[in-house]
Amino acid sequence: GQDADSIVTREDKNKEFLLSFPLPEVKDFLGLVYQCLIHEGTKSNLGSYFTPTNIVDRMVKGNIRPDYNVLDPCCGTGQFLLSFADYLPNPEKIWGIDIDPMAVHIARLNLLLKYPQDFKPNIYHLDTLLDLSLDQPSSDENLKNRDALSVPFLREQRFDFIATNPPWGAGVDIHTLTNLKKKYLRITSGESFSYFLIICLELLKEEGVLSFVLPESILNVKTHGDIRQIILENCHIKTIERLGKVFRNVLSPAIIMKLVKTKPNDDNEVIVRLDDRKYKVGQKRFVANQGNIFDIHINPKDEEILRKVYATEHVTLKDNAEWALGIVTGDNKKFLLAEQHKGYEPIYKGSDVDKYKLRKPSFYIDFKPEKFQQVAPEEKYRAREKLIYRFISNKLIFAYGDKGSLTLNSANILIPKLNNYPIKVIMALFNSALFQYIYQKKFNTLKVLRGNLEQLPLPIWGKETFTHISGLVDRIISGEDLSEKLDEYILEQFGFSLEERDYVNI
């Protein structure tokens, strides 16, 4: 056995190790421990993730005066509440709501420890989405085990400042969702953060400020056009700051959006912060964009370049093309072979699509449409000429197809129907450095979507220009390295200066 001295020495070393262990510098240490204990699946279902302290403080600083009434409508364990407390002498001006009863208890304790005076924290166990919808009828059954008595009082409150990191993509129970859809008819997405936004706008005083952490997808994804339109009608967007990927196990990059509740006007400017860049854009540009996209990646210099492109006489693919999705087999292991067998033909996936031409196919298939889960009309695949493009991509990558080739669902099909507009010119434009620039500035998505492609301008140039571009494309398909030469030629046709060409090519 071991002697007593060696045991004591080991215990002392363990204590020393524990005491010397570096602890994170956070205000809400209890909340951090609680987050660590919550099962990852529970956090995901609730849309609940710990917001870094530096982000919380940045959102709060400069937005609070000592007499403000402030709220975090999904306060968790109280990170934002503790940041509010740094600026408010009266703790009764701080309000918090959360659906998680344990988080509410911790938030109350955090605030009681923060202030020396005796007070009862205004932190309530409620469902903001249901209980604080201003004219939403409540019932004892709906409010069971929650702070029911506080609801009428809370609904009457109006706040100078509201800040939070609301749930993203959180599952909203069917009862709550049904009630929300009845009241907020314009929110068609069913997205939890959109409901939080609209309810908080109702709770704000006129000229009140709202600061939310949101997924970057709110800026440009079609589904969120509903809440973008509501924001543009009711707010001056003060700032949009890109944070990148700040939450573990959350794929979507995040932003901070700061709004002032006021009737917007044409002079409203939005301060955009992207990494180390900062600039202003006119809010009215968002109003004019199709789908009210918040195209924050377009700075004033970009705006001038895009103006030149779109000022050129042009057509678009809107109502001027046929489209087809690649085949969804339903069971690739069953239907696809890595080597060609009798009766099997090539089928191309997204990674087989290069600029201008297809690579060697990854798979072969026995084309029996009735056996597949989803398939476009066969004539789309067998078209005499078509363009094949990568669907999952943040860049435009288009290949020419004249062999009647099949594609999987990661490679989609475009068949232009523009008289006297050569298909190879369209491919050259979409593959060009200029159109990569346009696409990323205007849309900045990880999928190449038909609706976005339909907005790209196809300039109406003369026959000689079209013939020259088509000739260069043919030589590239044949193996010549002429992509840069073609890019420069396209830029020249728009009359860009050398400085503008260099900027686009970065």
What percent of residues are in strands?
A: 15-25%
Biggest sheet record? 9 strands, mixed
DSSP helix fraction: 25-40%
Question: Mean of residue pLDDT?
Answer: 88
C-alpha end-to-end distance: 71 Å
Number of E-state strands: 19
Strand neighbour order, sheet with most strands: 3-2-1-4-5-7-6-8-9
The radius of gyration over CA amounts to 28 Å
Structural class based on helices, strands and sheet pairing: alpha/beta
Backbone shape: elongated
Low-confidence stretches: 17-24, 36-47
Helical region count?
Answer: 21
Helix-strand layout with pairing:
Elements (H helix, E strand, L loop, with lengths): L3 H17 L8 H9 L2 H7 L6 H8 L9 E3 L6 H7 L8 E5 L2 H14 L7 E4 L2 H4 L19 H6 L2 E6 L9 H10 L8 H12 E12 L9 H10 E10 L9 E8 L7 E6 L2 E6 H6 L11 H12 L2 E2 L5 E4 L7 H4 E2 L7 E4 L14 E3 L12 H4 L4 E5 L7 E4 L4 E2 L3 E6 L6 H9 L1 H10 L7 H4 L4 E2 L3 H15 L5 H11 L4 H8 L1
Helix pairs in contact: 4-5, 5-6, 10-11, 19-20
Please characterize this protein's 3D structure.
This protein has 506 residues and is an alpha/beta fold. Helices cover 37% and strands 19% of the residues. It is built from 21 helices and 19 strands. The strands form 4 sheets. It has a 9-stranded mixed sheet with strand order 3-2-1-4-5-7-6-8-9, sandwiched between helices. The longest helix has 17 residues, at 4-20. The radius of gyration is 28 Å and the shape is elongated. It starts with a helix and ends with a helix. Mean pLDDT is 88; it is low at 17-24 and 36-47.
